[in-house]
Amino acid sequence: MSRFIWRCYHLQGWGWCDDLDKSDWTPEQVGQFLAYLPFTKETWGRASEWLQIYECEYWTRTDANAYQADGDLVDAIEKLIEHGRPHAAIDCLDRIRHAKQSIDSNQCIRALLAATSSNEPNYAMGGYQIIELIKYLQEEPSVNQDDLFRVEWAYVPLLNRDEGAAPQLLENRLANDPELFCEVIRIIYRSNKGEQPPVEPTEKSKAIAENAWQLLHDWKSLPGTQRDGTFSEECFTKWLQRIVEVCTETGHLEVALINIGKVLIHTPPDSDGLWIHRVVAAALNERQADNMRDGYRTGTYNSRGMHWVDPTGKPERELAHQFRSKAEDVENAGFQRFAVTLRDLAEGYDRMAERIIDDHKDLTDNK
Q1: Can you say whether the dihedral through the CA atoms of 212, 215, 218, 221 is positive or negative?
Q2: Beta bridge partners of 231
């Protein structure tokens, strides 16, 4: 039937469609008939005129092929969102983006948020489209930041750096809003006070915890970093002090400091030439900062990621040398406790080198 309607339309145009006797057709039949026709303004107008209060019979059936549209897609996107087709709306928005046309940011946000709870099949749409639209929103200065926060939170699993994306606003707020950081920590970790019995997690709470863990795991924005990329010593110090206060009270201080230590590996150099900013080095050097130093050590090891194994252990020896040099620099700057952690890292890389050499020696001997 679809091929017949399509062929008749192409041979005879809209006149054939308009002249058909549709007096005994049901709204469902009219909607399906229109859905077989091109996804254009002419079709949308007839859907409104012919179906009126039953217009949903068209918008829930059309395949919404954005590449057929011969004009502005804004009205069609609005109809798709209105009739429970946010994935189709996102496909149309991506078509606009690809054509380098202006996107209605508010409409884009509503489509993205609606898609998170939609039952609409989305087999034709990949995560790439969503990622690119979020990146567009991140670069658009007029976007409401609270709305963008909700969008980034909804799509945290998609926004990973391997795909060239990141939850930029979430990470920035995590680095500047200690209350948000403490809330994320509480979502993921149990209190060490043991005041409340463990609660069986729901599917919703599991999803929230997974998002929180992903956000914290991929977080690379140094606390105290402002939106313009500059680092504020005062903001960093106040941020850290507040977290110590809140997490001490809730019983989450240890895990909070470990996670903070992991992100401090991204600290920039100090203006005086020291390889790490002095205010951060001072925080890592505090007597009660053992957990933060442990996190720094773990974050350093983990940051190396996948790498080729040199049978000679040369890369590990070079890393060991680098961290001994860094340890000497911070010790000379007065940060002795932090220097011990850096020397531990150097010794760890030396042990890795020895293990690699021994493993490859054993393999050679067994041949």
Answers
A1: negative
A2: 225
Of the candidates 26, 93, 91, the residue with the CA atom closest to the CA atom of residue 63: 91
Q: State the helix-helix crossing angle for 290-303 and 336-365, rounded to 10 degrees.
A: 40
Residues 6+ away with beta carbon under 8 Å from 164:
131
Instruction: Report the alpha-carbon distance of residue 234 to residue 271 in Å, rounded.
Output: 16
Q: For residues 204 and 193, what is the distance between their CA atoms, to the nearest angstrom?
A: 25
Residues ≥6 apart with Cβ < 8 Å to 67: 95
Q: pLDDT exceeding 90 applies to what percent of the chain?
A: 76
Distance CA 33, CA 18 (A): 12
The Cα 243–Cα 175 span in angstroms is 11
Collapse the DSSP code of 29 into the 3-class scheme (helix H, G, I; strand E, B; otherwise coil) and give the result.
helix
Question: Between residues 2 and 105, which one has the greater pLDDT?
Answer: 105
What are the structure tokens assigned to 123, written together? Answer: 């087999």
Q: CA-to-CA distance for 219 and 213, rounded, in angstroms?
A: 10
Residue 312's CB: how many other CB atoms inside 10 A?
A: 12
Which tokens is 270 given?
Answer: 């100090």
Contacts 24+ apart (CB under 8 A), 341-347: 341/284, 341/293, 341/296, 341/297, 344/297, 345/297, 345/300, 345/301, 346/319, 346/320, 346/321, 346/322, 347/320
Both tokens of residue 28? 């469902």
In the prediction, which pLDDT does 362 show? 58
pLDDT, one tens digit per residue, over 250-266 is 999 999 999 999 999 99
Q: In one letter, which amino acid is 241? A: Q
Sequence-distant (≥ 6) Cβ neighbours of residue 291 within 8 angstroms: 253, 254, 257, 258, 261
In the numeric block, the tokens 């969008």 are attached to 151
Round to whole Å and give the CA distance between 296 and 305.
15
